[in-house]
């Protein structure tokens, strides 16, 4: 259950990442006529992604290790993939103990839960604006990423468990 969930988490994270990259390309192509973005701040951490900032807080707060701004891309990816894989492991444990597979609708619900939890975790940390201060189109796009993730996890979990009967059914 756990290994299958981890595998499903990796696949779901890959699907989410692909959708995020495609959406970024679509958005940048449609913004050709927009003014250029503002100059980056003097502190590269101000412009870093939330995953990189979480990794920095863990490193500096818990491990008492300073983190170089050059590590921002690595930390972004490491946190993104480990977070998605971790949630996949939880999905595997929950789905593996269920009497029947949650299916793709369950995957969409799971993705929605992960999306909500990102706000529950990151808003109090000051890394995300509260949902009521976020433009609806940004909320919808962020939700779409997490729906892709949840459906990807559910679909991948179903594929890796094909032909496997739960332990309680084996005789």
Task: Describe it.
Helix content is 66%, strand content 0%. The longest helix is centred in the first third of the chain and has 29 residues, at 2-30. It is globular and about 55 Å long. Helix 4 packs across helix 5. The mean pLDDT is 90. It has one domain (2-22, 45-162). It is an all-alpha fold. It contains five helices and no strands.
Summarize the structure.
The protein is an all-alpha fold and 171 residues long.
Protein traits:
0% strand; 171 residues; mainly alpha
What is the element layout, followed by pairings?
Blueprint: H1 2-30, H2 50-62, H3 72-97, H4 103-122, H5 136-160
Helix pairs in contact: 1-3, 1-5, 2-3, 3-5, 4-5
If you compute it from the alpha carbons, what radius of gyration comes out, rounded to the nearest whole angstrom?
Answer: 18 Å
The percentage of residues in β strands lies in: under 5%
Shape: globular
- SSE sequence, one letter per element: HHHHH
Number of domains: 1
Q: What structural category characterises the helix and strand content?
A: mainly alpha
Helical fraction: 55-70%
Number of helices: 5
What is the average per-residue confidence, as pLDDT, rounded to a whole number? 90
Number of strands: 0
- Largest sheet report: none
């Amino acid at each position: 259950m756990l290994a299958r969930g981890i595998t499903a988490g990796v696949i779901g994270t890959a699907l989410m990442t692909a959708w995020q990259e495609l959406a970024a390309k679509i958005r940048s192509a449609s913004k050709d006529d927009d003014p250029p973005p503002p100059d980056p701040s003097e502190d590269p951490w101000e412009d870093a992604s939330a995953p990189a900032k979480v990794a920095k807080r863990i490193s500096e707060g818990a491990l008492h290790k300073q983190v170089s701004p050059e590590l921002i891309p690595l930390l972004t990816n490491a946190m993104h993939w480990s977070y998605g894989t971790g949630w996949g492991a939880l999905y595997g444990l929950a789905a593996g103990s269920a009497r029947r597979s949650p299916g793709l609708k369950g995957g969409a619900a799971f993705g929605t839960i992960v999306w909500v939890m990102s706000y529950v975790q990151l808003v109090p940390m000051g890394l995300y604006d509260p949902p009521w201060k976020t433009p609806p189109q940004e909320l919808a796009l962020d939700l779409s990423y997490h729906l892709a993730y949840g459906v990807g996890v559910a679909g991948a979990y179903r594929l890796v468990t094909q032909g496997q009967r739960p332990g309680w059914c084996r005789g």
